[in-house]
Design a protein that fits this description.
- The complex is a heterodimer of chains A (586) and B (222).
- By secondary structure, chain A is α/β, with parallel strands linked by helices.
- Chain A folds into 3 domains: 182 residues, Rossmann fold; 162 residues, TPP-binding domain (Rossmann fold, 3-Layer(aba) Sandwich), CATH 3.40.50; 178 residues, Rossmann fold (3-Layer(aba) Sandwich), CATH 3.40.50.970.
- Helix content of chain A is 38%, strand content 15%.
- Chain A contains 23 helices and 18 strands.
- In chain A, the strands form 3 sheets. Chain A has a 6-stranded parallel β-sheet with strand order 2-1-3-4-6-5, with helices on both faces.
- In chain A, helix 9 crosses helix 14 and helix 11 packs parallel to helix 14.
- The longest helix of chain A is centred in the first third of the chain and has 15 residues.
- Chain A is globular.
- Chain B is an alpha+beta fold.
- Among the domains of chain B are: 75 residues, Alpha-Beta Plaits, CATH 3.30.70.260; 70 residues, Alpha-Beta Plaits.
- In chain B, the strands form 2 sheets. In chain B, strands 5, 6, 7, 8 and 9 form a 5-stranded antiparallel β-sheet that branches. A 4-stranded antiparallel β-sheet of chain B has the order 2-3-1-4, with helices on one face.
- The termini of chain B are far apart.
- Classes of the chains: A alpha/beta (586), B alpha+beta (222).
- At the A-B interface, helix 12 and helix 16 of A face helix 1 and helix 2 of B.
Chain lengths: 586, 222
């Protein structure tokens, strides 16, 4: 480790003079690159940072020592990235994570890739070996810029102590504007330690959100008005663009049913009669029927992921597609857009509303959607001779929590049950890993969500496999007294893989079942959290209530029926209209 | 929710009994309209990108091309009149919808200023350096002259020549030199500008004017 540079202070008169002639902040003028980095975070309004210490990032941590920014020390850098990602999902503003060079940076990679797939606003700060050592395979050196280039909106190698503050500001601004996503600043130790009197610029004025071409809006509105079977598909871009109100207003004014994507869950209240819940591989039968039969799909803020579309040849095959997206590269990437509307979701929906010549005549269509809702409800059995069903646990906890409670999940069967059997009525309440499908996301995400929204209930549904990947985060939750409730839907397996093995690999359960796993109740207690074990229907209400009431982290190890699988299911690349309700329909 | 002895709620028809929608999309996600069935034939086209001349820009562009499986015939980079910028010329072999996707994805990269697909009439040039066996210097010289080439190096064992031209001319020249047994060759890949008064990419006119004004201002100061 190199010696930190001794702090020097600019001549006071000079500093005042400079401040008078520019828009640069005069308060606590930074004197090093590290202080400029922290000053840039403060100027951007950052309140929390999630990270893990280490050699090359030490100067930045040292600058945090005197800052009002609260640092949440995580147990592992992957958890820091997921916590920051969830913080961004809950608040809409970039979560910030930091780590040292080498293993610190590579441990962040999964979380950065996760944010990139889901367009979650995130800023990652990584330490780097001093500039002179870069390229020499120095201790804890990795090419962080090279590694993270394909998984960030953009990344920056900070090369100068005088500009590092502005670089961090730019990274922050880029992460939160346009199509949101992760950015990264790699900070060589000499740049952090280096002296500067450059100060940090005030953040730029907000630009007006981009609107779509009025002429394009006109023709799209006509297509919607002429449709007989219109359907809104509300995606994650509606969450990111704060356009839930606009979707609700548009749908109800024109009587258009709404399906959501998984990242769009909560953008339209699931208890609304026009709501068909979410579509795709494990989405509702009625949403998938509606998508398959619509003649005009108004897709807002979605990238038509393959888990949504199934085989693209059979996706909404008779539909003219109105595609609203802020990213021009999403237009006609996977599904051809007949009416591309490039712009901010809320702005474009308002434009579309104003341009609508009439409401579509869709009464018969609404009736068909209701019929499908009756024909294909989400259901499960609870026979007396079978173990506890996971769906029952999800519904029971939903009933005892507030509408604005936040659910985080890992990835797998439990994630699907948490999405299917919890009724989401508000955006930013289902916080999950969608595009990347990162097992282990749930617990660190619950930590990030609780830090972002300390007054709201935060529940993490996890699988036993997912929980084992990041459960070291319990130490953080206990230390910081974070009141979160983790419900492990424990089926002693990587259940989704096992389900696929049974369906598509002749039941050859290779490496999917856990012959032995720890006792999560005891484990939770060892961490200093409350632990519970749940096996019987009769105990569900009491145990969940006790766990929710405990003022601190609690873990409920719910031993569920290992034979229970996730349905409906559209096999990978299949036709959404041919969703299976059980294995024998696959 | 259903619990206990109630059993599951009644469910609708299974996959084979359901009413199925009419129509289909192509593998490109385009609705197949039987009345106007359009087919996209594979074609070769040139994209020009004006980029900031900074470290990593080539890695960004080539990384994008490889991870999105874009089919690139050649990629060249070089400086421009402005030291801040560089030009990247890509020759792409793709069905039409793919080209738009390359263009849009390139535009999203931070160091990329503007991207445009050049028309068929664009001025395109490529250079090849060929090294052949030196047994027949007169004949090599004759072919070199036929292709308006230049001899760069000639010795008892090898002769090295350069030919410039469009892609077809380079292909033909290489064919013609094969009779001398080509030992090695290096092709640059195509570089191109739009023809006539038209600017090659959208951002260039504005940048050019800006640079001229700055130049005029410094000249005045002198």
């Amino acid at each position: 480790m190199s010696e930190p540079a001794s702090p020097t202070y600019p001549d006071e008169d000079e500093a005042t003079e400079e401040a008078a002639s520019s828009d640069r902040s005069t308060e606590s003028q930074p004197t090093t690159g590290a202080e400029a980095t922290v000053a840039a975070l403060e100027a951007a309004g950052v309140e929390h940072v999630f990270g893990v210490q280490g050699g090359a990032i030490m100067p930045v941590y040292d600058a945090l020592y005197d800052s009002d920014v609260t640092h949440v020390t995580m147990a592992h850098e992957q958890g820091a990235a997921h916590a920051a990602d969830a913080y961004g999902q809950v608040t809409g503003e970039p979560g910030v994570c930091m780590a040292t060079s080498g293993p610190g940076a590579t441990n962040l990679v999964t979380g950065i890739a996760d944010a990139n797939m889901d367009s979650d606003p995130l800023v990652a700060l990584t330490g780097q070996v001093p500039t002179d050592f870069v390229g020499n395979d120095a201790f804890q050196e990795t090419d962080t810029i090279g590694i993270t280039r394909p998984i960030t909106k953009t990344n920056y190698f900070a090369s100068d102590s005088d500009t590092v503050g502005d670089t961090v500001s730019e990274a922050f601004s880029l992460a939160r504007t346009g199509r949101q996503g992760p950015t990264l600043v790699d900070l060589p130790k000499d740049v952090s330690n280096g002296e500067t009197d450059a100060g940090v610029a005030e953040p730029d004025e907000e630009e007006a959100p981009p609107a779509a071409e009025p002429a394009a809006v006109e023709v799209a509105a006509e297509a919607v008005a002429e449709a007989e079977r219109p359907l809104i598909l509300s995606g994650g871009g509606v969450t990111k663009g704060e356009a839930s109100e606009e979707v609700r207003a548009f749908a109800t004014e024109y009587g258009i049913p709404v399906a959501t994507t998984m990242p769009g869950i909560g953008t339209f209240p699931e208890d609304h009669e026009l709501c068909l819940s979410w579509a795709g591989m494990h989405g509702t039968g009625y949403a998938n029927m509606a998508i398959s039969h619509t003649d005009c799909l108004i897709a807002v803020g979605t990238r038509f992921d393959d888990r949504l579309t199934g085989g693209v040849e059979t996706f909404a095959p008779g539909a003219k597609v109105v595609h609203v997206d802020i990213d021009p590269a999403e237009i006609s990437k996977n599904v051809h857009a007949d009416y591309p509307l490039i712009g901010d979701a809320a702005t474009v929906l308002e434009q579309l509303d104003e341009a609508m010549p009439a409401a579509p005549d869709a009464e018969a269509w609404r009736g068909r959607c209701q019929d499908w809702k009756r024909e294909y409800p989400l259901t499960y059995d609870t026979p007396d001779d079978e173990p506890l069903k996971p769906q029952f646990v999800v519904e029971a906890l939903d009933e005892m929590t507030d509408d604005d409670a936040i659910v985080t999940t890992g990835v797998g069967q439990h994630q699907m049950w948490a999405a299917q059997f919890w009724t989401y009525t508000e955006p930013r309440t289902y916080v999950s890993s969608h595009g990347l499908g990162t097992m282990g996301y749930g617990l660190p995400a619950a930590i990030g969500a609780k830090v972002a929204a300390p007054d709201r209930e935060v529940v993490c549904f996890d699988g036993d496999g997912s929980f084992l990947m990041t459960m070291q985060g319990l130490s953080v939750a206990v230390r910081d007294s974070l009141d979160i409730t983790v419900v492990v839907l424990n089926n002693r397996a990587i259940g989704m893989v096992r389900q696929w093995q049974d369906a598509f690999f002749e039941g050859r359960r290779m490496a999917s079942e856990y012959p032995w796993i720890p006792d999560f109740e005891t484990l939770a207690e060892a961490f200093g959290a409350r632990g519970f074990t749940l096996r019987e229907y009769d105990d569900v209400a009491n145990v969940l209530e006790e766990a929710m009431e405990y003022d601190g982290p609690s873990v409920v190890d719910a031993h569920i029926d290992p034979a229970e699988n996730v349905y409906p299911m559209v096999p990978s690349g299949g036709d959404n209209a041919r969703f299976a309700l059980s294995e024998d329909q696959l | 929710m259903s619990q206990g002895s109630e059993g599951p709620a009644p469910v609708g028809p299974g996959p084979d009994q359901r009413e199925m929608p009419a129509g289909r999309r192509s593998s490109q996600g385009i609705r197949v309209d039987p009345q106007v069935e359009a087919t996209h034939e594979s074609r070769r086209t040139v994209l020009s990108a004006l980029v900031y001349h900074e470290p990593g820009v080539l890695a960004e562009v080539s990384g994008l091309v490889s991870r999105r499986q874009f089919n690139i015939e050649s990629l060249t980079v070089g400086s421009t009149t402005n030291p801040e910028t560089a030009r990247i010329t890509l020759v792409i072999e793709e069905p039409e919808p793919g080209v738009r996707q390359v263009e849009r994805q390139l535009e999203k990269l931070q160091p990329v200023i503007s991207v445009r697909e050049l028309g068929d009439d664009a001025v395109r040039r490529e250079l090849v350096v060929l090294k052949v066996h030196g047994d027949n210097p007169d004949e090599v010289n004759a072919i070199t002259r036929m292709y308006d080439g230049t001899t760069l190096d000639a010795g008892p064992r090898t002769i090295t020549v350069q030919i410039t031209g469009d892609e077809q001319k380079i292909d033909d020249a290489i064919d013609a030199f094969r009779q001398f047994d080509i030992r090695e060759l290096a092709r640059t890949g195509q570089t191109a500008l739009s023809r006539g008064d038209e600017w090659t990419t959208d951002a260039e006119e504005e940048r050019y004017e800006q640079m001229r004004q700055e130049q005029a201002a410094t000249d005045d100061d002198d």
